[in-house]
């Protein structure tokens, strides 16, 4: 039995080591980008990391010796980050959610793959390679005859596609209905393979060599659908409300996505999160379910979040984020603005986001996807993109054998009358910033850009 204070201490220690690692990674990333060869620069960081771990172990040992003293040192209210993640109930666009109100705490690139001093769940390194051949063999498979063979194999070996998929005459779920659909599936399968391959490459390049461990925190943003064996990691502002509608229909909580109102999606649903299961339940689902992630162009997602939370009345984001942002970054702020926290400008918001000493913590709506969903640790089977959401979501639904009349909805939940956040609109917002601010915004989301193959948003960036 490890006492609570010790756990707290450990989690803080872990936080420290994570911070260092993060800094290392950022440095690595930047250097790597400039030189295109990151191998040589990895050494110093790894070295410092090892050193820190050594020191950490020593500190832990000393603390173990002195438990009783520690109990007194640890005041109540110490952050228990990582062990008990707050706001389980929190949902993707719910307002009172996801914020870690921990002033000054920088939540930059949390790195997966860190060993935590807290006894973590040990997982084997998941290999879901059944429907992705080795990279080398892939290109050779492009011959027409082999394509069909391979295509069928792809479908058959998908973890969720049912038994009957080899029966091509059967039009039951999990099989394409027509030759056109068959080719579309083939194309989309290849896109998936390319995305997963790229992500593995990026992860391999930037991940630590330290053993991979998964804690409940890593899976706290993942929704579970047991009937169709789906795990969906919610990424706010990347179609997550509509995905929740889908999950609710799949699990029988509703018969159609159309009947689910916005509030029901976010407050009244009974979707389960993966971290609500015990260790075995988590492991088993991670190993056998289809793990799904939908991503979006990082800066568009950011602008979308800003518009949603700050350009519209909001009883949570204005007081909790708006007030500290205005009071720190606005010169001669009016009393009204300081009191309500309303009217944060995009520039002020970006100052907050890029500030190493943020006056208020991070939030899931602008936290990089590479941190929210731990893609290097969880090896997602399906990486969809918001930009091609409908096609890809429907492909996934058909492949998982979802009812044929269930298709991905196109509701725009928040502020339906407002213009959708587009590339054009995003550029208009970023035009208000300096080149150096744009560069820092890009750097902030750099891992997302790399992992999900989004191209550089502005020409003048490096
Ligand atoms: C496939 O079907 C056969 C017989 O219908 C059954 O025995 C087998 O368990 C099924 N396999 C899977 C993976 O569902
Ligand atoms: C394949 O389809 C045919 C015709 O639809 C059906 O008779 C047969 O039972 C199916 N076989 C399997 C294994 O599903
Ligand atoms: C990345 O995207 C470009 C187009 O923007 C595409 O040509 C390329 O194949 C993609 N790379 C991977 C690994 O998906
Ligand atoms: C889909 O079909 C099921 C029955 O097969 C029905 O209960 C449901 O309402 C239908 N959904 C839609 C969106 O039509
Ligand atoms: C702030 O207010 C003071 C006094 O009203 C004024 O002199 C000063 O120029 C203002 N500063 C800015 C940046 O507006």
Automatic annotation (TrEMBL):
Origin: domain of life: Eukaryota
Q: What is the lineage of its organism?
A: Eukaryota, Metazoa, Chordata, Craniata, Vertebrata
Q: Which Pfam families match?
A: Sulfotransfer_2 (PF03567)
One Gene Ontology cellular component annotation held by this UniProt entry: Golgi membrane
Membrane spanning stretches: 43-64
Annotated Gene Ontology MF terms?
sulfotransferase activity
Name used for this protein in its record? Carbohydrate sulfotransferase
- What residue spans carry the region label Disordered? 91-116, 156-184
Family per similarity comment: Belongs to the sulfotransferase 2 family.
Location in the cell: Golgi apparatus membrane
E.C. number:
2.8.2.-
Q: Which GO terms describe its biological process?
A: carbohydrate biosynthetic process; proteoglycan biosynthetic process
Compositional bias (Low complexity): 158-177
Where this protein primarily resides, as one coarse class?
Golgi
Which UniProt key words apply to this protein? Carbohydrate metabolism, Glycoprotein, Golgi apparatus, Membrane, Signal-anchor, Transferase, Transmembrane, Transmembrane helix
Its placement in the membrane is given as: Single-pass type II membrane protein
């Amino acid at each position: 039995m490890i006492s609570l204070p010790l756990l707290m201490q450990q989690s803080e220690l872990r936080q420290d080591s994570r911070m260092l690692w993060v800094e290392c990674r950022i440095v690595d990333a930047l250097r790597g980008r400039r030189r295109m060869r990151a191998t040589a620069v990895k050494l110093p960081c790894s070295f410092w990391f090892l050193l820190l771990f050594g020191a950490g172990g020593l500190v832990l040992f000393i603390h173990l010796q002195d438990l009783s003293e520690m109990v007194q040192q640890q005041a109540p209210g110490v952050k228990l980050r990582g062990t008990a993640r707050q706001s389980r109930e929190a949902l993707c666009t719910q307002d009172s959610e996801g914020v870690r109100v921990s002033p000054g705490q920088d939540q930059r690139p949390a790195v997966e793959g860190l060993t935590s001093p807290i006894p973590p769940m040990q997982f084997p390194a998941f290999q879901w390679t059944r429907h992705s051949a080795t990279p080398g063999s892939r290109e050779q498979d492009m011959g027409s005859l082999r394509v069909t063979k391979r295509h069928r194999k792809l479908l058959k070996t998908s973890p969720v596609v049912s038994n009957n998929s080899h029966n091509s005459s059967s039009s039951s779920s999990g099989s394409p209905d027509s030759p056109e659909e068959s080719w579309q599936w083939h194309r989309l399968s290849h896109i998936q393979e390319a995305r997963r391959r790229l992500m593995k490459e990026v992860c391999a390049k930037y991940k630590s060599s330290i053993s991979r461990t998964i804690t409940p925190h890593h899976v706290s943003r993942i929704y579970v659908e047991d009937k169709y064996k789906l795990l969906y990691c919610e990424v706010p502002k990347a179609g997550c409300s509509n995905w929740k509608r889908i999950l609710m229909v799949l699990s029988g909580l509703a018969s159609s996505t159309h009947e689910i109102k916005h509030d029901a999606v976010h407050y009244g649903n009974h979707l389960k999160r993966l971290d609500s299961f015990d260790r075995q339940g988590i492991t088993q689902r991670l190993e056998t379910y289809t793990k799904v992630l939908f991503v979006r162009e990082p800066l568009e997602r950011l602008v979308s979040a800003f518009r949603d939370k700050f350009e519209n009345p909001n009883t949570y984001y204005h007081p909790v984020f708006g007030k500290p942002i205005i009071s720190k970054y606005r010169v001669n702020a009016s009393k009204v603005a300081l009191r309500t926290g309303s009217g944060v400008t995009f520039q002020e918001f970006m100052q907050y986001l890029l500030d190493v000493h943020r006056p208020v913590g991070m939030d899931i709506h602008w936290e990089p996807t590479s941190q929210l969903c731990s893609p290097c640790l969880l090896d997602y089977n399906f990486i969809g993109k918001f930009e091609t959401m409908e096609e890809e979501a429907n492909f996934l639904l058909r492949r998982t054998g979802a009812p044929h009349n269930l298709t991905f909805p196109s509701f725009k939940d928040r502020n339906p009358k407002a213009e959708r956040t587009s590339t054009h609109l995003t550029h208009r917002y970023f035009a208000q910033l300096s080149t150096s601010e744009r560069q820092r915004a890009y750097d902030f989301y750099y891992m997302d850009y790399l992992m999900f193959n989004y191209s550089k948003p502005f020409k003048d960036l490096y």
